[in-house]
Amino acid sequence: MAQDQYKFVFTAKEAESEGVTEPFRLPNLITKAMSLARAPISKYKVGAVGRAPSGRIYLGVNVELPGLPLHHSIHAEQFLVTNLALNSEKGLHLLAVSISTDGNDFGAPCGNCRQFLMEMRNALDIQILLKSKHEEGSFRSLRHLLPDRFSPCSPLLLEKRDNCLTLSGSAGEICSSDCSHLKCKALAAANNSFSPYTNSPSGVALQDDDGEWYRGWYIESVASNPSLGPVQAALVDFVARGLGKGFDKIVEVVLVEKKNARVSQEGTAKMILDTIAAPNCDFKVFHCYEDLVKKMNYITIPEVENGKKGYLVRKIIRQ
């Protein structure tokens, strides 16, 4: 079935049927992951396989955007982490990343991706497989592989959040959360956006020529450059659920961001879409603002878990 050919998320039972019965068997899915990579520029396909605390197995692949500089590409590890976020996972326990074209060698993520991983709670405890073709290999922690690191002030990338954003002006009239309007989907994405360093949340929703929609949101890194834009995040959803469709099947896109944000995504989004999407792709931008009344319904409180300090966002239920 086509769905199985383009599968990016496996339940524990499904992964077991693929031979992933214990941590050292994660490589059993690497060939499948690499076959799904999109590397029209470098021709170098990278696959990543990770296990979440839920027991589900996630795939990540590198995605290069034809006609654009490689710094707009999505790394396989970024893809995997975004895949986790889109599926409401809370963390990552194990990770295997291919570093050879035959998928037999596994190594540490690049420095960009090691820093990107740091935005998750308990990131330093992620176990990463190091293995050459003729060795069983071993797992090393991110703590060991990234000794000199930028430490996030709030490593809560995968935590549930609501940025309390509302659309500005007449665009503010939105429907229920399950409506089909792209601006509503993009607003919901922006409310999930992780932007603790510049407070510039943004979200993108896109639609293909079959009427299927996809979404993604801006994911920020304390080290700046590893940050992932909302268009790239939405493309992760498109690649993961689009059953192999080309980017030229994207016909409508909506970006929601704050007006006069410190980091605006509009120019970059337009450039990417002008290059890869359908020639007649309809691109719209809606601005939003923080709803202070809504924000008052949320508080951030200190939390201690296993002796480690963190922060937890909890909703106040008003009687």
TrEMBL record:
Output the GO biological process annotations, alphabetical, semicolon-separated.
pyrimidine nucleoside catabolic process
Q: Which Pfam families match?
A: dCMP_cyt_deam_1, dCMP_cyt_deam_2
Keywords, alphabetical = Hydrolase, Metal-binding, Zinc
Q: What are this entry's molecular-function GO terms?
A: cytidine deaminase activity; protein homodimerization activity; zinc ion binding
- Do the record's keywords include DNA damage? no
Uppermost EC category:
hydrolase
Carries keyword Ligase?
A: no
> What are the required cofactors?
Zn(2+)
Highest taxon of the lineage: Eukaryota
Q: Which residues form the CMP/dCMP-type deaminase domain?
A: 21-153, 177-299
Q: What is its EC number?
A: 3.5.4.5
The entry's cellular-component GO terms read: cytosol
Q: Which NCBIfam families match?
A: cyt_deam_dimer, PRK09027.1
Its subunit composition reads: Homodimer.
Similarity comment text for this entry? Belongs to the cytidine and deoxycytidylate deaminase family.
What is the protein name for this chain?
cytidine deaminase
